[in-house]
Specification:
Elements (H helix, E strand, L loop, with lengths): L6 E3 L9 H10 L6 E2 L17 H10 L8 E3 L12 H20 L4 E4 L9 H18 L5 E5 L12 H10 L6 E6 H6 L7 H11 L5 E6 L1 E2 L10 E2 L8 H8 L9 E3 L10 H10 L8 H4 L1
Parallel strand pairs: 1-10, 2-3, 3-4, 4-5, 5-6, 6-7, 7-10
Antiparallel strand pairs: 8-9
Helix pairs in contact: 1-2, 3-4, 4-5
Bound molecules: fe (iii) ion (FE) (2 copies) and zinc ion (ZN).
């Protein structure tokens, strides 16, 4: 069993145990890393750090041999730092990102996944310029060394960051390039039109356009929809249009060895599927009908 595979899932952070509970949840899945939100994914309201049992969580992490530098924080969805039409909302997004970077650092983590945002009709080029400028403002004043991983998006609505070229342009236009990296989401890139089955072709293209050294996180998700559908609906491993084999090749790819692989697949009947999905990826073997026991 390749215990050294850097694999985990998103985990919750709820009271009363907060971060301590997040770490326990990751351990219960047999994970070697994980991703969490420092509050609700949908809004920017955040509980004070003192209440979140960070110290307790971090000491449990160390006890279990987790590499803290590979733990991932995801910024709330509400942020649109690429908004080309509403400067007041832009300021709010910038403040929220700065706050999230500082919170990420307080947890001892070193990367924050950020959705690049929506162009809202202004077109991707204009929005990319706005985003690069917002990121400059963030990095000019956040005071941390936390990196932002721009997530590749499916192309739902007016999302930007839907191809490697757009993600490259965001990085190129920002003056703090060493603070930026990328989060590749398999469901999103498939929905955006890329062929995940051609794993090496995909990684070569990423390397040619962005540079593989920029890749900080991989989100391993199957997709409910066909390649190019621009829908962004995640599916459990082996039950979607990408399929287990391609996702397993990504998770175990030697070129991605030191990059955290994070599952964001859906719960089944209110139960987390992650121990099963992690086990199958480690074993590099699909267990047909593995979902059945959740449906019983
Ligand atoms: Fe995301
Ligand atoms: Fe994702
Ligand atoms: Zn998604």
């Amino acid at each position: 069993m390749a215990k050294d595979l850097l694999i985990g899932s998103h985990v919750s952070m709820n009271g009363p145990e907060y971060y301590l509970g997040s770490v326990k949840e990751a351990i219960s899945y047999g994970a070697t890393t994980f991703m969490f939100y420092t509050g609700a994914p949908q809004n920017s309201y955040r509980k004070p750090l003192e209440e979140l049992k960070i110290k307790e969580g971090r000491s449990l992490l160390k006890e279990h041999g987790f590499d803290e530098s590979k733990i991932v924080v995801h910024a709330p969805y509400i942020i649109n730092a690429a908004n080309p039409s509403k400067p007041e909302l832009l300021d709010l997004s910038i403040k929220t990102i700065i706050n999230e970077l500082q919170r990420t650092e307080a947890f001892g983590a070193s990367m924050l996944v950020l959705h690049p945002g929506n162009h809202l009709g202004a077109g991707p080029d204009a929005a990319i310029d706005v985003l690069a400028d917002s990121l400059d403002k963030v990095f000019a004043s956040d005071g941390t060394n936390v990196k932002i991983a721009i997530e590749t998006m499916a192309g739902k609505g007016s999302e930007i960051g839907t191809c490697f070229e757009q993600v490259r342009d965001i990085i190129e236009k920002c003056h703090y390039k060493d603070r930026l990296g990328v989060c590749l989401d398999t469901c999103h890139v498939s929905d955006a039109g890329y062929d995940i089955n051609d794993t090496d072709g995909l990684l070569d293209e990423f390397d040619r356009i962005i540079g593989l050294e920029r890749l900080l996180v991989v989100h391993v998700n199957d997709s409910k929809n066909q390649r190019g559908a621009h829908k962004d609906r995640h599916e459990n491993l082996g039950y979607g249009e990408i399929g287990f084999d391609a996702l397993c090749r990504i998770a175990n790819h030697p070129r991605l060895k030191n990059i955290p692989k994070i599952l964001e697949t859906p719960y089944i009947n209110e139960k987390a599927p992650y121990s099963d999905e992690i086990r199958m990826l480690r074993a590099e073997s699909f267990e047909p009908n593995w979902k059945d026991k959740y449906l019983a």
